[in-house]
């Protein structure tokens, strides 16, 4: 004769109280309850559903077994115990024993499963927030470590790479710390505030160093500027060689002023001709 059944499912376990418990001796109930407690402790989850839907009533000894099963989940920060009881008398016994502060009591196994799933989603969100809170501080410290090559290394390639890495790490840490400060509380919120201070300090230091480097960079000396090399296939200009880029002078037009010889010839043509020889 078995008084309990134990079933391990994904993310939670199920302990079912059977009606045969009401006919078993107290010693047998204690023996089987101890076995169930050990099975609960051996699981990798502290989420437990206790099914009392098959019980018409429960005695004080069974209430003690409920408490022992609840204690078996002790030490888990995410423990969740849900009791499914569809009989009013059973729920009244649980309430009178003061167990409502330790367990969530619902009316059916479907409600119990829904309660466990909701708590599982909450645990996933809690785990994500915990990972962010504990990961953001090392990232902020890593960004602070990049300040050494930025400030004290003369190699421009190393300094430029350190600046870029530090800006990216500090920016990510700054955003993640805001999420941690808003969503978390307690020590995780304190870690978010510390990470925010470090990341903001790193961003400000790198930005100020960049500005100083740009201001200290000397302007190019025009006296030291080298002449441009001639284009391929062209000879360099030597001495007073004519500038090919200068505009060419247009040839004199035909309407230019006449030369002296042409002027004299025109004047001689206009003078009166003298005829030599005997008169007619």
In DSSP terms (H or I, runs of 4 or more residues), the helix count works out at 8
Per CATH, the architecture of the domain at 4-107 is: 2-Layer Sandwich
Provide the CATH topology of the domain at 4-107: Transcription Regulator spoIIAA
Distance between the termini: 181 Å
CATH class of the domain at 4-107: Alpha Beta
List the helices and strands in order.
EEHEHEHEHHHHH
Q: What does the average pLDDT come to? A: 77
Secondary-structure class? alpha/beta
Report the major sheet: 5 strands, mixed
Which percent bin holds the helix content?
A: 40-55%
Radius of gyration: 50 Å
Low-pLDDT residue intervals, each spanning 5 or more residues: 255-271
**Spatial order of the strands forming the largest sheet:** 1-2-3-4-5
Tally of DSSP β-strands: 5
CATH superfamily of the domain at 4-107: STAS domain
Shape: rod-shaped
Determine the oligomeric state from the structure. Answer: single chain
């Amino acid at each position: 004769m078995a008084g309990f059944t134990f079933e391990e499912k994904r993310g939670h376990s199920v302990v079912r109280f059977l009606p045969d418990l009401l006919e078993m001796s107290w010693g047998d109930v204690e023996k089987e309850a101890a076995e169930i407690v050990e099975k609960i402790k051996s699981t990798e989850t502290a989420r437990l559903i206790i099914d009392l839907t098959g019980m018409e009533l429960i005695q004080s000894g069974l209430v003690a077994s409920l408490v022992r099963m609840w204690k078996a989940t002790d030490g888990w920060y995410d423990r969740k115990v849900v009791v499914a009881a569809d009989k009013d008398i059973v729920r009244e016994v649980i309430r009178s024993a003061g167990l409502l502060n330790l367990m969530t009591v619902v009316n059916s196994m479907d409600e119990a499963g829904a309660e466990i799933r909701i708590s599982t989603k909450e645990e996933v969100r809690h785990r994500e927030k915990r990972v962010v809170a504990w990961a953001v501080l090392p990232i902020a410290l890593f960004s602070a470590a990049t300040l050494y090559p930025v400030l004290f290394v003369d190699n421009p390639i190393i300094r430029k790479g350190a600046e870029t890495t530090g800006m990216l790490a500090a920016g990510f840490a700054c955003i993640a710390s805001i999420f941690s400060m808003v969503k978390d509380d307690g020590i995780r919120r304190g870690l978010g505030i510390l990470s925010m201070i470090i990341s903001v300090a790193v961003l400000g230091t790198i930005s100020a160093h960049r500005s100083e480097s740009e201001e200290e960079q000397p302007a190019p000396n025009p006296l030291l500027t080298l002449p441009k090399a001639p284009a391929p296939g062209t000879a360099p200009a030597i001495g007073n060689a004519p500038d090919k880029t200068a505009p060419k002078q247009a040839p004199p037009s035909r309407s230019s002023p006449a030369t002296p010889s042409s002027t004299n010839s025109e004047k001689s043509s206009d003078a009166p001709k003298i005829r030599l020889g005997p008169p007619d």
